[in-house]
Design a protein that fits this description.
- Pfam families: TetR_N.
- Keywords: DNA-binding.
- GO terms for molecular function: DNA binding.
- The chain is mostly helical and about 190 residues long.
- About 75% of the residues lie in helices and about 0% in strands.
- It has helices at about 1-30, 35-40, 45-50, 55-60, 70-75, 85-95, 105-115, 115-140, 150-170, 175-190.
- The chain is globular and about 50 Å long.
């Protein structure tokens, strides 16, 4: 029980730090604040910030994208549905599952990214790393002769769906990001049918 309480407190502190970092980025730009500014804004010590995050980019963007290895293995093996794009969407759901609990945080992140070109570059670099890993998973699943350009196109479509869902979440906070993501996928399927 103590461990669960401790983990919950740790998660709340990390979220508070991320929210403060995002707000500082919206207000001052990514390069306009320091870790000391963040510590003051979040009412913690500088050391506490570094107990949670390696640097400013990690604070603002949160932890890297991670998917349970079992889900990745199932995807590479051709599952769970056997349809490549549907299975990519399911993998995307797994990647965002634990990140979408606070849609206000997602909206704030979107605002910070749009306002600051330096942050946009950091996001792009992070997404490129994730995309490279996913392209490799697609090629493992589909075989080495599966064109890398097609795999990258599928991932760019998926990123476009994320971006559109972010826009929808900002415009309609009455629904969760996941609901908007699913609605975006449904709209795309209808448009392409």
């Amino acid at each position: 029980m103590c461990t669960n309480r401790r983990e919950a407190k740790r998660l709340l502190t990390a979220l508070r730090l991320q929210q403060c970092g995002l707000q500082l980025t919206v207000d001052k730009g990514f390069d306009g604040w320091t870790i000391d500014d963040l510590a003051v804004a979040a009412d913690v010590s500088r050391r506490t910030v570094f107990n949670y995050f390696d640097g400013k980019a990690d604070v603002v963007l949160g932890p890297g994208i991670e998917v349970d290895p079992e889900h990745v293995d199932a995807f590479v093996a051709g599952g769970p549905s056997g349809r490549l794009f549907d299975d990519l969407i399911l993998l995307a759901h797994e990647a965002i599952k634990d990140r979408t609990g606070d849609d206000q945080l997602i909206t704030l992140m979107r605002e910070a990214i749009v306002k600051d070109s330096r942050l946009l570059v950091l996001v792009h670099n992070r997404l490129e790393e994730a995309a490279t890993g996913l392209v490799e998973c697609v090629r493992q699943r589909e075989g080495d002769d599966f064109p890398a350009q097609q795999a990258r196109l599928l991932l760019k479509l998926l990123l476009t769906f994320f971006d559109h869902a972010l826009d929808r979440t900002s415009a309609d906070p009455g629904h969760t990001f996941t609901e908007h993501f699913d609605a975006t996928i449904a709209d795309a399927r209808t448009a392409l049918a």
